[in-house]
């Protein structure tokens, strides 16, 4: 998916000869410098990479059109976050909460029919790290940011009322002060603190901490685990795969509600309904602060974006997203694997 430029989308600032006015070009550059962090914010708010990018583009267009009325009483960054928050809150009005399959039902069995699948708007979707994680230059900040786009954390955020969601993200993830958040929302500090307290309580009930812990970088052991996973999956060696799975590991496949828990059921699925995955090839990518792969089946057709979760030297989650027509371009992957 190609990102749109601010100037190109609103149709201003480009002269017939291809030259842009210097002042307009400078403004466009200033706005574009905030695109990645705004996309990360909107993704946490909305749970969809596609909706997040649409929300940021709308934010940029609104900012471009109203910049003449920007009085500079707040920083450009704060002003953009205010616009982005309003865009997200508008999008969330009356919308259904996005979730993961494990948020909707108990584990299925191999005999459970797959079903027809739910629409894209029902699911938390994956996102490439490069789209949402700006390079702050601070390894500690980067580690916290990676943890704050985990699929489970994004799903937990969707349990919150939209304004509570905004408060928690701004306060706990982005480290804004209560005064700054109150000004952004046109609210009081007391109301912001109350919303934050309620948001923390809701996340605690879901088992998620309101303030993400720093995500450690991949160490030698984790890299070796992933290498063994790729080898086992591509050889379709179920004994080797079983040895890598945690006893409570899960397999999910949005847009289908069906999900499985435990190595035994996962392997039964692979050898039954999932037998078409035999002979697949995995191309490494990075999604939601975690290692991921683009999965191509033996014939070269794209099948899934796999987001891999690990803990304690084992794989705890195989999250397979099957909307390949949109997801593979998002991750910069071709829609046909030619062996290279």
SSE topology:
Elements lengths: L5 H5 L11 H11 L2 H12 L2 H18 L9 H17 L8 H4 L24 H4 L6 H9 L3 H7 L4 H12 L4 H8 L3 H17 L14 H16 L2 H7 E8 L6 E3 L1 H9 L9 E7 L2 E7 L5 E10 L2 E8 L2 H7 L10
Parallel strand pairs: 1-6
Antiparallel strand pairs: 1-2, 3-4, 4-5, 5-6
Helix pairs in contact: 3-4, 3-5, 4-5, 10-12, 11-12, 13-14
Subunit structure: Interacts transiently with the RNA polymerase catalytic core formed by RpoA, RpoB, RpoC and RpoZ (2 alpha, 1 beta, 1 beta' and 1 omega subunit) to form the RNA polymerase holoenzyme that can initiate transcription.
Protein name: Sigma-70 family RNA polymerase sigma factor
Keywords: Sigma factor, Transcription, Transcription regulation
The stretches of 5 or more residues where confidence is low (pLDDT under 50) are none
Strand order of the largest sheet: 2-1-6-5-4-3
Shape: globular
Mean pLDDT level: 91
Helix content: 40-55%
What is the CATH first-level class name of the largest domain? Alpha Beta
Radius of gyration: 21 Å
Terminus-to-terminus distance: 21 Å
Architecture of the largest domain, according to CATH? Roll
The CATH topology of the largest domain: Nuclear Transport Factor 2, Chain: A
What is the strand content?
A: 5-15%
The structure class reads: alpha+beta
Largest sheet: 6 strands, mixed
Subunit structure: Interacts transiently with the RNA polymerase catalytic core formed by RpoA, RpoB, RpoC and RpoZ (2 alpha, 1 beta, 1 beta' and 1 omega subunit) to form the RNA polymerase holoenzyme that can initiate transcription.
Family: Belongs to the sigma-70 factor family. ECF subfamily.
Domain RNA polymerase sigma factor 70 region 4 type: 151-203
Domain RNA polymerase sigma-70 region: 30-97
């Amino acid at each position: 998916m190609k990102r749109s430029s601010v100037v190109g989308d609103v149709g201003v600032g480009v002269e017939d000869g291809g030259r842009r006015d210097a002042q307009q070009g400078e403004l466009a550059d200033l706005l574009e410098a905030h695109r990645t962090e705004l996309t990360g914010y909107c993704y946490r708010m909305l749970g969809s990479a596609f909706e997040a990018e649409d929300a940021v583009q709308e934010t940029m267009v609104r900012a471009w059109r109203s910049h003449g009325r920007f009085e500079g009483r707040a920083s450009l960054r704060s002003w953009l976050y205010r616009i982005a928050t309003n865009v997200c809150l508008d999008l969330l009005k009356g919308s259904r909460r996005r979730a993961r399959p494990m948020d909707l039902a108990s584990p299925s069995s191999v005999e459970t029919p797959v079903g027809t699948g739910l629409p894209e708007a029902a699911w938390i979707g994956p996102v490439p790290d490069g789209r949402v994680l700006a390079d702050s230059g601070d390894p500690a900040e980067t580690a916290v940011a990676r943890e704050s786009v985990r699929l489970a954390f994004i799903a937990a955020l969707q349990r919150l009322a939209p304004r509570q969601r905004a408060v928690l993200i701004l306060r706990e993830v982005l480290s804004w002060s209560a005064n700054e958040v109150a000004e952004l929302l046109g609210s009081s500090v007391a109301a912001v603190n109350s919303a934050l307290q309620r948001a923390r309580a809701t996340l605690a009930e879901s088992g998620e901490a309101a303030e993400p812990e720093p995500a450690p970088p991949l160490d030698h052991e984790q890299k070796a685990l992933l290498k063994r996973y790729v080898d086992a999956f591509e050889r379709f060696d179920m004994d080797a795969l079983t040895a890598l799975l945690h006893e409570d590991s899960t397999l999910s496949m949005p847009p289908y509600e069906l999900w499985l828990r435990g190595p035994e059921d996962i392997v039964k699925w692979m050898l039954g309904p999932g037998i078409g995955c035999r002979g697949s090839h995995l191309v490494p990518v990075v999604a939601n602060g975690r290692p991921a792969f683009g999965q191509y089946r033996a014939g070269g057709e794209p099948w899934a974006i796999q987001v891999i979760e690990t803990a304690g030297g084992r794989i705890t989650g195989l999250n397979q997203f099957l909307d390949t027509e949109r997801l593979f371009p998002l991750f910069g992957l071709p829609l046909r694997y030619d062996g290279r």
